[in-house]
C-alpha cells in the first residue's frame, strides 16, 4: 500500500527544525501566488471561464452539497487507505491523473516536461493536451505514464495522424474531448485580447505533424504571428460535426482504450457506450465552455447510473483537494483528473510545484480514505450523502 499519508509526518518533523513548507496547501493561496508569477493574459486564460463564470463557481460549490460518512469501526478498517486502482487492465498506484491543459508554455518555460517530472515522482499519469507546447514524442520520453487527449480537428486525416502518433509513442489511452467544437465565450480573454494560438503557442503537436505540415506551403515559424500555419490551425482546430460515428472510427486507428471527455448527461453517455467507447469523463471543461451549465459533480451520479458497469466513468471539474477526490469516487468515479491546482503549482515552482500539489492531494486523499475505513477504489454511495 502506498503511504502518501506519511507526507504530513515529514512536514511536521521538518518544521521542528524551522523548515516550513515553501508552498501553501490551500488552492486559493497557491492561486494568489500564481497570479503574481504570471502575466495577466496567461493567468486570465487559466483562471477564467465562460460567461459570468457561474459554471466554474458551481463546480466548486457542488462539493459542499455532498457529505462523506466515515465509519471508523468498519471491519478491516485498520488496513484501509490503499489508493491503487485498475483502469482498462492497467494497475495505477493512485486514482489521480493530471487533466489535459494546453498552452503550458505561457505558464512555465519547461511546460509539459516539468509536468511530467512532477507527476512521475508520484506515479501519476499525465493526460497530454493536443494543444501542448511540447511535441508528444518528447513528452513520451519524459513521462513514465501518459494518456493523449484529442481535440478532434476538422481534418479527419489529421485526427488519424494524431491518434497514430500517440499510439506509436506509447500513450496508454486516447481521451477525445467532445465539448469544444469551438471556444466558449470567455470575457477575461476577450478583455485582454489574449488568444495564445494567434502567437503560435500551444501548436507543438500540429507543427510537428507530417499531415499538418503537408498542407502548408512553407515550414511553420515558431513564435511567429499570423503565419500560414496559424491560419491553417484556426481552420482545422475543431470539428463542428463530431458525433458518435466519428469516435467509432478511432477503432481503425488504434487498439488503445478510448474515452470521451465532456459528458454531463446520462442519455449521451448511453449513446457513447453503445458506440463502443471504453470510458467517459464526466466534465464541463472546468466551466470554460458553457456558462450556467450543470455542475459536473451533480451530473456524475446520473452518468454512473446510466452506464453501469459497461464503461469506466472518470471525473474532472472543480476538484481542489483530496477530500474532493474522495467525494467524486464515492459518487462512482473510478479516477479523477485534476486541473487548475497543479497548473498554479507549475507557475510558481515548475516541476517541484506540480509535485507539491499532487503530493498534498494524495496525502489528504489517503488520510481521508483511512478515516473512512475504506480503500479509495471501494468508496461508494453508502459513504456519501447529499446535504
Short account of what is shown:
The strands form 4 sheets. The protein has a 6-stranded parallel sheet with strand order 5-6-7-8-9-10. Strands 1-12 form a two-stranded antiparallel sheet. The chain has a two-stranded antiparallel sheet with strand order 2-3. The model has no long low-confidence stretch (mean pLDDT 94). It has helices at residues 7-15, 27-37, 40-47, 54-62, 111-120, 136-142, 156-169, 187-192, 204-207, 210-213, 228-236, 244-249, 266-274, 296-307, 322-330, 340-372; strands spanning 66-68, 85-87, 90-92, 96-98, 126-128, 146-151, 174-177, 258-263, 279-282, 312-315, 336-338, 384-386.
List the helices and strands and how they pair.
Elements: H1 7-15, H2 27-37, H3 40-47, H4 54-62, E1 66-68, E2 85-87, E3 90-92, E4 96-98, H5 111-120, E5 126-128, H6 136-142, E6 146-151, H7 156-169, E7 174-177, H8 187-192, H9 204-207, H10 210-213, H11 228-236, H12 244-249, E8 258-263, H13 266-274, E9 279-282, H14 296-307, E10 312-315, H15 322-330, E11 336-338, H16 340-372, E12 384-386
Parallel strand pairs: 4-11, 5-6, 6-7, 7-8, 8-9, 9-10
Antiparallel strand pairs: 1-12, 2-3
Question: In words, what does this structure look like?
Answer:
There is one protein chain. By secondary structure, the chain is of the alpha/beta class. The protein has a domain at 49-68 and 91-338: Aldolase class I (TIM Barrel, Alpha-Beta Barrel). It is 41% helix and 12% strand. It contains 16 helices and twelve strands. The chain has helices at 7-15, 27-37, 40-47, 54-62, 111-120, 136-142, 156-169, 187-192, 204-207, 210-213, 228-236, 244-249, 266-274, 296-307, 322-330, 340-372, and strands at residues 66-68, 85-87, 90-92, 96-98, 126-128, 146-151, 174-177, 258-263, 279-282, 312-315, 336-338, 384-386. The strands form four sheets. The protein has a six-stranded parallel beta sheet. Strands 1-12 form a two-stranded antiparallel sheet. Helix 2 (27-37) packs antiparallel against helix 16, helix 13 packs across helix 14 (296-307) and helix 15 (322-330) crosses helix 16 (340-372). The model has no long low-confidence stretch (mean pLDDT 94).
Amino acid at each position: 500500500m502506498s503511504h502518501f499519508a506519511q507526507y504530513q509526518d515529514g512536514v511536521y518533523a521538518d518544521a521542528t527544525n524551522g523548515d516550513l513548507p515553501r508552498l501553501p496547501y490551500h488552492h486559493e493561496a497557491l492561486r494568489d501566488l500564481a497570479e503574481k508569477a504570471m502575466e495577466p493574459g496567461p493567468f486570465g486564460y487559466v483562471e477564467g471561464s465562460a460567461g459570468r463564470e457561474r459554471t466554474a463557481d458551481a463546480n466548486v460549490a457542488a462539493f459542499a452539497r455532498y457529505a462523506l460518512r466515515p465509519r471508523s469501526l468498519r471491519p478491516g478498517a485498520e488496513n484501509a487507505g490503499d489508493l491503487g486502482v485498475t483502469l482498462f487492465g492497467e494497475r495505477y498506484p493512485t486514482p489521480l491523473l493530471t487533466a489535459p491543459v494546453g498552452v503550458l508554455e505561457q505558464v512555465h518555460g519547461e511546460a509539459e516536461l516539468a509536468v511530467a517530472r512532477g507527476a512521475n515522482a508520484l506515479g501519476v499519469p499525465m493526460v497530454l493536451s493536443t494543444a501542448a507546447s511540447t511535441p508528444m514524442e518528447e513528452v513520451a520520453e519524459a513521462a513514465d505514464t501518459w494518456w493523449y487527449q484529442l481535440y478532434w480537428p476538422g481534418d479527419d486525416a489529421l485526427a488519424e495522424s494524431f491518434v497514430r502518433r500517440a499510439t506509436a509513442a506509447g500513450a496508454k489511452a486516447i481521451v477525445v474531448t467532445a465539448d469544444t467544437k469551438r471556444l466558449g465565450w470567455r470575457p477575461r480573454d476577450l478583455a485582454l485580447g489574449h488568444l495564445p494560438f494567434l502567437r503560435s503557442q500551444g501548436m507543438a503537436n500540429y507543427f510537428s505533424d507530417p499531415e499538418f505540415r503537408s498542407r502548408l506551403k512553407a515550414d511553420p515559424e515558431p513564435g511567429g504571428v499570423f503565419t500560414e500555419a496559424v491560419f491553417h490551425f484556426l481552420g482545422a482546430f475543431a470539428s463542428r460535426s463530431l458525433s458518435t460515428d466519428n469516435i467509432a472510427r478511432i477503432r481503425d486507428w488504434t487498439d488503445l482504450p478510448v474515452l470521451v471527455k465532456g459528458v454531463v448527461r446520462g442519455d449521451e453517455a448511453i449513446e457513447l457506450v453503445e458506440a463502443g467507447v471504453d470510458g467517459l469523463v464526466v466534465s464541463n471543461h472546468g466551466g470554460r465552455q458553457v456558462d450556467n451549465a450543470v455542475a459536473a459533480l451533480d451530473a456524475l451520479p446520473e452518468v454512473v447510473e446510466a452506464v453501469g458497469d459497461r464503461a469506466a466513468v472518470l471525473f474532472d471539474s472543480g476538484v481542489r483537494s483530496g477530500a474532493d477526490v474522495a467525494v467524486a469516487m464515492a459518487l462512482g468515479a473510478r479516477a479523477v483528473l485534476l486541473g487548475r491546482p497543479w497548473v498554479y503549482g507549475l507557475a510558481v515552482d515548475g516541476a517541484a510545484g506540480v509535485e507539491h500539489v499532487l503530493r498534498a492531494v494524495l496525502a489528504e486523499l489517503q488520510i481521508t480514505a483511512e478515516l473512512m475505513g475504506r480503500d479509495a477504489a471501494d468508496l461508494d454511495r453508502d459513504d456519501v450523502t447529499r446535504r
